[in-house]
Amino acid sequence: MQILSKIWLGFMMIWTLAGCTNVPEKVTPASDFELPKYLGTWHELARLDHSFERGLTKVTAHYSMREDGGVKVINRGFDAKSEKWKQAEGKAYFVESADIGRLKVSFFGPFYGGYNIAKLKPDYSMALVIGPNLDYAWLLARSPNPRQQNCQPFLEEANRIGISPDRWIWVNACDKQGAD
Predict the structure, then answer these.
(1) How much is the pTM?
(2) DSSP 8-state assignment for residue 143
(3) Which residues fall within 8 angstroms of residue 77, CB to CB, at 6 or more apart?
(4) Using CA atoms, how far apart are residues 108 and 73, in angstroms rounded to an integer?
(5) Which residues, including other chains, have CB under 8 Å from residue 176's CB and lie 6 or more apart?
């Protein structure tokens, strides 16, 4: 009986970890993805609420290559309450082929979460990223204040896949005048 329990526990652990990199229903990761174009700094325009970014503003994500062929991820944001910058370093790897915008990201040792690029502007100036489920989503742009007309199709896509507009926490606003 003890062996059966260990096998069951091992199966459940593998199933749980594998489930963290799933693609949510209605999300199709970007195809013809080109990692070199995606590298660099992105500004977080909006996100869904989650504890590890709660209260942060001026949030950026910087992506660069790792020596092992993966992607180095530096997330940074300003915590007004403590008046300090907070930073987390992670790593990401493709789940499928390198031309599909589906990666697994880890900030916590061997535990990975899904990073699905659900919508990407052809010039790589804006992206909608969805996690392993619809509780995690980010609207990213190269500019901290893109034009509102550029944000709208991304918000419509998020709504289509099941993320209600009222769930978004706006860090940087899409501007009628915008920088892009």
Answers:
(1) 0.86
(2) S
(3) 44, 53, 56, 57, 58, 59, 60, 85, 86
(4) 12
(5) 147, 148
- Structure-block tokens of residue 16: 């749980």
- How large is the C-alpha radius of gyration of the chain? 17
- Please give the pLDDT value at position 175: 63
- Alpha carbon of residue 130 to chain centroid: 6
Beta-strand ranges (E) seen in the chain are: 40-47, 56-65, 71-79, 84-94, 102-108, 111-120, 126-130, 137-141, 169-170
Give the C-alpha separation, 34 to 17, whole Å: 27
96-147 pLDDT, tens per residue? Answer: 999 999 999 999 888 899 999 999 999 999 999 999 999 999 999 999 999 8
Distance CA 172, CA 175 (A): 9
Q: Which two tokens stand for residue 75?
A: 């997330």
Distance CA 49, CA 21 (A): 19
**42, 74 Cβ separation under 8 angstroms:** no
Q: Which pair of tokens denotes residue 2?
A: 């003890």
Residues in the chain predicted with pLDDT less than 50, given as ranges, are 1, 3-19
Q: Are 44 and 60 in contact (CB under 8 A)?
A: yes
